[in-house]
Amino acid sequence: MSHIRVLVGTRKGAFILTSDGKRKEWEVNGPMFGGWELFHLKGSPVDHNRLYASQSSSWFGQIIQRSDDGGKTWYQPGTPPDQPTMAPEGIPIGESNKFAYDTSSETAKPLTTHQWYDGSQHPWEFKRVWHLEPSLTDPDTVYAGVEDAALFRSTNDGLSWQELSGLRNAKGNLWQPGAGGMCLHTILLDKSHPTRIFVAISAAGTFRTDDNGKTWRPLNHRLKSKMELPDPSAEVGHCVHSLTFHPSHPNVLFMQKHWDVMRSDDAGESWHEISGNLPSDFGFPIEVHAHEPETIYVVPITSDSEHYPPDGKLRVYRSRTGGNEWVALTNGLPQQDCYVNVLRDAMAVDSLDPCGLYVGTTGGQVYVSADAGDRWAPIVRDLPPALSIEVQTLP
Amino acid sequence: MIRVVLPEHFRTLARVEGEIQLDMALPITQKTILDALETQFPMLRGTIRDQDTKKRRPFIRFFACAQDLSHENPDTPLPKTVATGVEPFLIVGAMAGG
Q1: CATH number at residue A146
Q2: Which residues in chain A touch residue B11, judged by CB atoms under 8 angstroms apart?
């Protein structure tokens, strides 16, 4: 029987929640890396026991952790499992934590500054890894989206990282930080186009490469951000909060923008709004049902200054029509006095049938629905604020 | 023998308990101590100072002999009591909160 492993990144450590396919009884393990911010954990789709984690701290910097046994033990890449890090061989040499922007002249002389809040140019400065995306085909290859926005790739299990610096040539001098920082937070790998990658950056927009990361271009045509970006033809500067697609329909992208829920039917070449009857089109995460490419989920938030659900009711909204027509899913979710947020990486789906849906809140609750959103129950209520949720469906 | 005190998170990463002792040649400065520390415990590279620029991370502080040395030139020789191991060199997470 299949079972489920939920990887939860929080402000104060990581937790792993496990259950069988019924998704009723759960075991909670953690905290791991207690006291650190775990922005993201994710497992390799080709080796379920290979997990990567981004452990960071404003005080103590960025650490990459890896597990080869499904999260039972962790180590910084460079230290073989069960080997003390003080051993002469195999100790982590810090390269796994080194995210150095590419400034070599061989790679098209990458830009070295971006736009700062006051409009001046500001040097790129590495702060943290927001998102880790393991390769769809190679367990040793993993991508990292970082702040200040850039995309890195490791082809040696996270031992060392190289920037795909062509991305910053896509008008990087015009990118500027949003309130949460200038982060590359979404990485979509397209199994049907192995050299294609989509990324999303706050507050720059969506970008795509079709040549495995060498060259990139903005994909923000017809996005509108009237208040924040008055220029209707601006190629960059849009605050994309999250981006997703169904693997079987990789040309159909769904976007939760700062304001507006958007859809593209041409791999990001153009966008149209699908906010429809949502009570608010501001929000952070967006997800697609595992088996229904036109069924999508969002969590509306009141506004850019009020990061909590409208009317104090936590409602996940589902559209079975690819947008515009939305239904509130409330059964089992708090419907009064609820003022938590669901951050951009804190919603995920499993691939069981019926599809499971998971959300983690800034109040530390992790909710599960084992029936595609119809009924919800808390797995755990009192974790630190959830930063990310990823789900592995295991054989 | 130079004595170095690390905050708890760094001791966890380095898998050590208590003070660290470093065998070092002169001169004893912030930079030479950090170089020696990162050589012996390379898993700490990037956590105390930027791996590229070698600049101290903003929320890390250096103390010795009851003095905050965080803003001193990294190449300035440290007090003799640190260089002789009488006093430890303290690496501290900055006070923060409200």
Answers
A1: 2.130.10.10
A2: none
Q: Looking at the domain assignment, is residue A233 inside a domain?
A: yes
Instruction: Specify burial of residue A259 (Cβ count, 10 A radius: 0-12, 13-18, 19+).
Output: buried
Q: What is the full DSSP assignment across A251-317?
A: EEEEEEESB-EEEESSTTSS-EE--TT-S--EEEEEEE-SS-TT-EEEEEES-SS--S-GGG---EE
Residue A234 lies in a domain: yes
A158 in any annotated domain:
yes
B46 contacts chain A (CB < 8 A): yes
Quick check: A84 and B15 CB within 8 A? yes
Q: Are A60 and B47 a contacting pair at CB < 8 A? A: yes
Instruction: Determine the distance in angstroms separating the CA of B91 from the nearest CA of chain A, rounded to an integer.
Output: 11
- Chain B residues lying within 8 Å of A35, measured CB to CB: 9
Q: Each residue's pLDDT tens digit in chain A (395 positions)?
A: 799 999 999 999 999 999 999 999 999 999 999 999 999 999 999 999 999 999 999 889 999 999 999 999 998 887 655 554 443 444 556 678 889 899 887 775 677 899 988 888 999 989 999 999 999 999 999 999 999 999 999 999 898 899 999 999 999 999 988 888 899 999 999 999 999 999 999 989 999 999 999 999 999 888 887 777 777 778 898 899 999 999 999 999 999 999 999 999 999 999 999 999 999 999 999 999 999 999 999 999 999 889 999 999 999 999 999 999 999 999 999 999 999 999 999 999 999 999 999 999 999 999 999 999 999 999 999 999 999 999 999 99
CB contact under 8 A, A94 and B10: no
Pick the CATH number of B2-93 from 1.25.40.10, 3.10.20.30, 3.40.50.1580, 3.40.120.10: 3.10.20.30
Q: Is A15 domain-assigned?
A: no
Chain B contact set for A104 (CB, 8 A): none
Compute CA distances B37 → A135, B7, B20, whole Å: 35, 14, 9
- Both tokens assigned to A9: 């990144």
Identify the domain containing residue A74 by its residue range. 36-84+92-273
Flag whether the ipTM exceeds 0.90. no
Domain count, chain A: 1
How many CB contacts within 8 angstroms connect chain A with chain B? 62
> Is A387 within 8 Å of A9 (Cβ atoms)?
yes
